Amino acid sequence: MYIRKGDMVQVLSGDDKGKIAAVLRVDRQAGKVVVEGVNRVYKHVRPNQRNPKGGRLQLEMPIHASKVLLVNPDLGKGVRVGVKINQNGDKVRVCKKTGREIGQPLRRARSNRENG
Predict the structure, then answer these.
(1) In whole angstroms, what is the distance from residue 14 CA to residue 28 CA?
(2) Entry pTM
(3) Residue 47 in contact with residue 53, Cβ under 8 Å?
(4) Under CATH, which architecture does the 8-115 domain have?
(5) Which of 4, 34, 38, 40 is the most buried (most CB within 10 A)?
(6) Structure confidence by residue, pLDDT tens digits, 43-68
(7) What is the distance between the alpha carbons of residues 43 and 51, in angstroms, rounded to a whole number?
């Protein structure tokens, strides 16, 4: 999975289809992501010491990672992503449409890791 916390993604299906928002959490084991403002549900909470009034809380629930596309900042919309090794030896995400690198490297080359 090539989606990380903080990435901007576009939702492909469901009630929030087309929405572009930031990733809050990534669960690699389950293959799911939590996206800001997407797949919101109400959780009914009984009154307790932390929340004396009780009521309904709105929470963002995880959606499957295959239902989001990474947003290319140049195009401003979701694109398919590939991975390649650049000239420095870093593993980077690449836009399939334009061929340009997207975001920070996924993994730095060994020589770059030691130097900083």
Answers:
(1) 21
(2) 0.80
(3) yes
(4) Roll (2.30)
(5) 38
(6) 999 999 988 999 998 999 999 999 99
(7) 13
